[in-house]
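User: You have something folded?
Assistant:
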Amino acid sequence: MRKFFILIILLVSGLSVLSAQELNFTVKVNIQRLLTADPAVFNGLEQSLKEFVNSSKWTEDEFRPEERIKGNILLTINGEATDKSQKTIPNVYTAELAIQASRPIFGSSKETTLFNFIDREITFKYEQFQPLQFSKTLFNDNLSQVVAFYIHIILGMDYDSFALNGGSDHFQAAQNIVNVAQSAAAVQGRGWSSIEGNNRNRFWIVENWLSPRMKPMRELQYVYHRLGLDQMSQDPAKGRSIISKTLENARKSFDTYPNTILMQLFLSAKSKEIMEIFRMGTPDEKDRVADVMSRIDPTNANNYRQLRQ
């Protein structure tokens, strides 16, 4: 379904049909917080990371340049890692990874955010000009594993947005990365275990996507995007109605399993967009959506109440 959707865009626009890799990400490495280590160590890391993300082959599908998933990665190096006695661990660093990805909206020049997350639990070993290498079966380095994990999560979300459960293979690939990391004696840092991160880490992100109990969230990913947003250019009222109903179904999932990481990821990506969509809605739509969103996102309840004004 994803390929069919993009093919329609290409036929309409007359864009190139040349094949390319799957991702088109802007990649930045920020070392401004690095106070003690030699910043020259990271010369070349930004380019290596960019090539790792954009030039690796992540799927078996062929992507045209115009099909490539757009996004941004910002790796912020916090400093040198220390052991329990606060001694510096040679060539090991702590970092944060901010990652965002988007998807086109059918019949529009606009894009919608799919994923928007900051992983604050990254520790990795790195020496100057060290290549980034990823293996499906072997643990090479933590940075490569972490980035590959999020790439497969984004691919899974993208494919899910075009076909119901279309991203399962990529979520399973992300699960395999977690399994490999857990079994590696040399793994650094947190984020791979079920007992860390207050149910907000990498383990729980992919666990949620694959869990049968989170089936309504998988359905939300498809219905919201393919049946809702992609309808807006042709029939805004129909698109809003579909989105309103799928948000109500998502609320049922929230009532059963409140504050899951999937719901937090959805709200991080969609909260403002939902406000924009329903500003043009009927009074009844505004009331229903304000009620639903205030329940599943109580910290922003005041914002949703503005829909009624």
